[in-house]
């Protein structure tokens, strides 16, 4: 009932020529895939990749955005600038932004509300550190990040929100949460959406898993009832790994 959503986060990789070649290959190899697809190149390659992806079934995503439309924000990129480049989805609250660049739930919430107001879709990332998991605080951490991140977001706007559950200890480490572990948190995430917006909205919410998703573990993860897609980092940088993930079949 929920359309699976596979998104690639290219992070700070690739110059424009490399990004163009990868986008061209993905456009060709992913034509006809029935899932919702997105790639998020670095800001510097958005225009190049956007031109390649025009008319394809792959959406153009951005990895971050400023909490303001314009003004004195040195080094920042506004949602209007992203839209001008053809971006339709923005990843917000990625753990690398939270933990390496000090982004707080309050700041992420400002960005989420502005992105939605400007008509962008949002992938809101949540997830616990290893320390938090070992202290049995997974549900509490995820609940706080969701409640704070979604503050002021209306039920109508929720259709433009995807939640990505990304345990921080599984990102870029090669350690994937087991399908059981991931599904348990995804179930909690859906319950939190139900608490905030009601069961109908919770049923519709697409919840991605992120953290070392690879061709050989995607089927096991996507086979779970509450796992609706993936946010993919490392494996999104090559067609050999991203294409089989994007083509997964339950
Ligand atoms: C990510 O950065 O969101 C991610 C899931 O990375 P990786 O797939 O490399 O763990």
TrEMBL record:
Pfam families with a match to the protein in the record: TIM (PF00121)
Single GO cellular component term: cytosol
Pathway listed: Carbohydrate biosynthesis; gluconeogenesis; Carbohydrate degradation; glycolysis; D-glyceraldehyde 3-phosphate from glycerone phosphate: step 1/1
Class of this enzyme: isomerase
Biological process, per Gene Ontology: gluconeogenesis; glyceraldehyde-3-phosphate biosynthetic process; glycerol catabolic process; glycolytic process
Residue sites binding substrate per the record: 9-11, 172, 212, 233-234
EC number, UniProt record: 5.3.1.1
Complex formation: Homodimer.
Purpose of the protein: Involved in the gluconeogenesis. Catalyzes stereospecifically the conversion of dihydroxyacetone phosphate (DHAP) to D-glyceraldehyde-3-phosphate (G3P).
Protein name per Swiss-Prot or TrEMBL: Triosephosphate isomerase
Organism: Alkalispirochaeta sphaeroplastigenens
Upper taxonomic lineage: Bacteria, Pseudomonadati, Spirochaetota, Spirochaetia, Spirochaetales
């Amino acid at each position: 009932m929920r359309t699976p959503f596979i998104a690639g986060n290219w992070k700070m990789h690739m110059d424009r020529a490399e990004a163009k070649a990868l986008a061209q290959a993905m456009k060709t190899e992913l034509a006809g895939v029935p899932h919702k697809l997105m790639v998020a190149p670095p800001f510097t390659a958005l225009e190049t990749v956007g031109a390649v992806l025009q008319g394809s079934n792959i959406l153009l995503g951005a990895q971050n955005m400023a909490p303001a439309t314009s003004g004195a924000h040195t080094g920042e990129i506004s949602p209007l600038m992203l839209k001008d480049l053809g971006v339709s989805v923005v990843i917000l609250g990625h753990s690398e932004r939270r933990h390496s660049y000090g982004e707080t739930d309050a700041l992420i919430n400002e960005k989420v509300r502005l992105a939605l107001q400007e008509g962008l879709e949002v992938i809101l990332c949540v997830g616990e550190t290893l320390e938090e998991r070992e202290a049995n605080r997974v549900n509490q951490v995820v609940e706080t990040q969701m409640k704070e991140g979604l503050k002021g977001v209306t039920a109508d706007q929720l259709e433009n929100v995807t939640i990505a559950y990304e345990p921080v200890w599984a990102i870029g480490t090669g350690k994937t949460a087991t399908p059981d572990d991931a599904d348990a948190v995804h179930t909690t995430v859906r319950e939190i959406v139900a608490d905030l917006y009601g069961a109908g909205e919770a049923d519709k919410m697409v919840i991605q898993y992120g953290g070392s998703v690879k061709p050989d573990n995607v089927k096991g993860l996507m086979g779970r009832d509450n796992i609706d897609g993936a946010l993919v980092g490392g494996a999104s940088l090559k067609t050999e790994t991203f294409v089989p993930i994007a083509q997964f079949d339950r």
